[in-house]
Amino acid sequence: MKPIAMIYMAALLLGASYCQAQQTARPSETESIGISSEAAEAAQKAMVLERQAKYTEAESAWENVVKLQPRDADAYAHLGLLEARREHYPEAISHYEKAQRLAREQNTAIPGLNLDLGLALFKSGDFQAAGKLFEAELKQHPDSGDALRLSTLTAMSYYGAHEYGAAIPFLKEASMANQRNLPILLTLGHCYLWTKQWDEALKTYQQILAVNPDSAEADMIAGEALDEKGDKPAAVQQFRAAVQANPKEPNVHFGLAYLLWTQRQYDEAILEFKKELENDPQNSQAMIYLGDTYTRQGNFADARTILEAAEKYQSKFPLVHLDLGIADMEIGENDAAIRELKKAIGLEPDNVTAHFRLATLYRKLGKRDEAKVEFAKASALNKKTDDSLYKRIQDANARPDLDSKTPAPPRPTPEN
User: Fold this and answer.
1) Which residue ranges have biased composition labelled Basic and acidic residues (predicted)?
2) What's the pLDDT score for residue 356?
3) What SS3 class is residue 130?
């Protein structure tokens, strides 16, 4: 299970106790806002219905309270809670924010309101706003019994917002409080990785081993960090350990295959790319690099088959069109080759290989002027280095929907 999924589950568990707060939170100082006896009686009726779990009737009753007393902050807080129970988070947020505003104007406090609002923001996907609210609550109550929960919720929120650097201090605090909390340690390791703190990622890996020596995900974190530090053999060793620990771990075979690909160990890389596709047939990065490996080995028929499949998922990935262009060129489909190579250049104008291949093809076809232009462009460019492993794995996680112009919801990605 990936850290964001574990975090979301943890948030639900942490939030369960908070979502009960409003049920008994009604202030006794209702006279301070001039509440009428009729409104007070309606509020008592609403509370009884809510405690009896008659939520539809309770919602109607609280709406009646609001009609009788439009500035009753607590009534809006209860309406927010009832909407949150039905997972109507935008409506819940609206009620909570109104309750918050009215409470401030009346110089009163509603216990648990900020936490309930934060959880609604989190569950609606507004992780950044949730993180800021939880952090502010933690600063206001640093010594409360809920401080650890607030730290964890703050960390989860910033992680969900892809603000990995902001999440790290709170994850460290949570991990120090419970040094055997594997989800927190794994998430901390990923945050170090995605903020390019390779040594800290490796230290966290050692902490994870003390909890679970067979964690494939931890081996992958260490492998990616070692790759970034330039220790390719050690990175390969870590990914082999990850494969052995859990051959079904997402991207474990892709990570090993990509490392082997960068070292031109193509035969074994092909086997690992195929194993990744057995686990995840829609892993477009595995398709692309399997197709590229076939291209490098001169297996153009298999290359075209897999690259055409990859194009349905990653039509704007330059390597897809470069390799399709090379394959078309090698089998004599010159017009198709020109189209594909031009697509590759359009997506990545500084791709020296695409310019050189197009120049070579133009020269073969007798188009000397066009060939001269492309050779000049190729000569002026430096060959691009291979992307890092952790960048490739994140691209594998962030794949778009099939044949869709709308990108899929973002997955965690490394900070620049």
Assistant:
1) 389-404
2) 94
3) helix
What percentage of the chain exceeds 70 in pLDDT?
83
What does the pLDDT look like over 214-261, one tens digit per residue? 999 999 999 999 999 999 999 999 999 999 999 999 999 999 999 999
Under 8 Å between Cβ of 120 and 84: yes
Domains and CATH numbers, the chain: 191-249 (1.25.40.10), 261-408 (1.25.40.10)
Give the number of other Cβ atoms within 10 Å of residue 183's Cβ.
Answer: 17
Query: How many residues comprise the chain?
Result: 416
Predicted confidence (pLDDT) at residue 32 exceeds the cutoff of 60: no
pLDDT classification of 27: cutoffs 50, 70, 90: very low
Is the CB of residue 331 less than 8 Å from the CB of residue 300?
Answer: yes
- Would you call 85 exposed, middle or buried from its count of C-beta atoms within 10 A (0-12, 13-18, 19+)? middle
Is residue 148 classed as helix, strand or coil in its secondary structure? helix
Contact by Cβ (8 Å): 277, 305: no
Provide the phi-psi class of 99: left if phi over 0, else alpha when psi is between -120 and 50, else beta. Answer: alpha
Token pair 């039509």 is found at 315
State phi, psi for 141 to the nearest 5 degrees: -130, 65
d(CA 356, CA 341): 10
Confidence of residue 141 (pLDDT cuts 50, 70, 90): confident
Contact 197, 42 (CB under 8 A): no
Contact 182, 212 (CB under 8 A): yes
Q: Which region holds residue 70: left if phi is over 0, alpha if psi is between -120 and 50, else beta?
A: alpha
SS3 assignment, position 403: coil
| CA end-to-end span of the chain | 25
Per-residue exposure over 331-347, b if at least 16 CB sit within 10 Å of its own CB, e if not: eebeebbbebbebbbeb
Distance between CA atoms of residues 22 and 46, nearest Å: 13
54 burial level (CB within 10 Å; 0-12, 13-18, 19+): middle
